[in-house]
Design a protein that fits this description.
about 325 residues; alpha+beta; 5-stranded mixed beta sheet; two-stranded antiparallel ribbon; DUF1559 domain-containing protein; Pre_pil_HX9DG_C
Amino acid sequence: MRHRRGGFTLIELLVVIAIIAILIGLLLPAVQKVRSAAARIQCSNNLKQIGIALHAHEGTYGYFPTSGAQSAAFGNTGVGFETMGWMYQILPFIEQDNVYKIGQQSGPNNWNASIGKAMVEIQIKTYLCPARGNRASAPASWGSVYAMGDYAGVMVEWGNQWQATLPPDPNEPNTFKGIITKGGHVRTDNPSLTQKYATVNVTGVTDGTSNTIAIMEKAVSAKQYQPTATPDWDWWEIPGWAHNSDWPNMRLVGNWVPLLPDNDTTRVSWATANGKMWEPGFGSAHTGVVLAVFGDGSVRGIQMSVNTGGNAGWSDASCVLYHLGGRSDGWVVSSNF
């Protein structure tokens, strides 16, 4: 008697494959949602650590960290104040004291024998949003690979004075009306004209630390997660987290600059002549929200759709973010944002 061999017919196999495909199709979005939620939680935790560090710095030195000096003064020492930015200044308070000491010993850009690289090439996990990955620059022609940061201090006005051979921009008192202020202005051509600026402590935030944003996730186009130093220098990102009072770690809040998701295509109209995206403001890889640490150390989500406009796109009483960025403009902003 002939026994029929067990097995699947072609139709049965196709049905099984179809069921598996349907299950995978249903599962993938759920997995992606879990990953996105986990990335947002980790990003929030990073900002919480930064918020604690801001207050630890204020408790230790009597003032919040500053944005350092202007860009052309990067790495200058012995001027009476720290010229590197707030991310460098809080390193001892996020368990990165060894990196802080390397900066003190070798400077930010100089090769250090103990680590085989410069300080600006060291990635600091606390400064990276996991939704964007472990960001670093493309290798420069001189070999450096700069480590990026995904968070920036708040400026409320436009500031573009970076030279070290000119007096400071007269608009700087308006530019740095937030919690993270400029530490001073270095004159490399005439050191006697170097100016150290006043610092800000908790009592100086008269609008209330719980009502004032100190740090937010900064805008980064998904196309520029790996910025380039050569042939074109990406001014918005490089040299990364260790930089001072310039766009890599200070950004413009509210005013005429909207919050932007990383995948926003409207940046095309903001592209520069070399094709890079113009990134003066804040944004996020998280759907619909930008995370921010306030002066009291709390972390809250700012809706991407929050009103950032004003008359003809400029700041006025209707610009929520603009007033959340200022430490002492007297505006009471609703917490429903």
